[in-house]
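User: quick one - fold this with N-carbamoyl-L-aspartate bound?
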Amino acid sequence: MAYCQSILKAREYSDFTPLMTLYLTDTTSPNEIKLARDSGVVFVVKLYPAGATTNSQDGVTDLFGKCLPVLEEMVQQIMPLLVHGEVTIPDVDMFDREEVFIDTVLSPLVQKIPQLKVIMEHITTMDAVNFVESCDKGFVAPTRKKIFLGTDSAPHDRRKKECPCGCAGIYNSHVALSVYAKVFEEAGALEKLEAFTSFNGPDFYGLPRNTSKIKLIKTPWGDIVPMFAGETLEWLPSHA
Ligand SMILES: NC(=O)N[C@@H](CC(=O)O)C(=O)O
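Assistant: Sure. Structure tokens for the protein plus N-carbamoyl-L-aspartate:
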């Protein structure tokens, strides 16, 4: 709730509403889910397999062994589960980790608790697309409408990106819409961009669609270099 307040205080140019996320751990209790719902600010729960990505060290080690009562409570409280879909088994090649996660965790999950609303974040493989499309329950919306925009935007230090086990997210918020438009245009599917960007997400979550609008104009732009790009800074601002 404090984090939500600090976001609300910091937002300067927009009236967006932050939908807060609860970080699921092995020790999250069903009662915590109730408290989260009662807080009025927490809207979803995020599942990180422990160690899979940035700041996931406190994530879940055994979803079915440790979290089933919590997942059942989430159904009661109508709280969706956001999923970082990747196993952390060292022997599994990094390009197969999403597929193995689907087979060993996600598929059993939607069978065990079909009423749970699940969002598979930043899907990367055709296996994930096929899986999402094959789900009637959990992923409630009908085919095509259940795939929607999520940028996975994350500003990582260059040394954490360009290394043998680089952080995954890329810093893309400022160009995300332009890049999506380019990709949709190249696929001959520009008419689907608006639903992907603005309708499918809120419809899936059961939230009202935004009424404010953005217009995309086809004109070259973007020759921007942020100040001190590529250089090392000497002072690190942090919360006092
Ligand atoms: N693909 C990812 O692993 N994304 C990260 C964000 C990040 O890279 O920090 C996430 O939290 O989902």
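One thing worth noting: DSSP finds nine helices and four strands in the chain.
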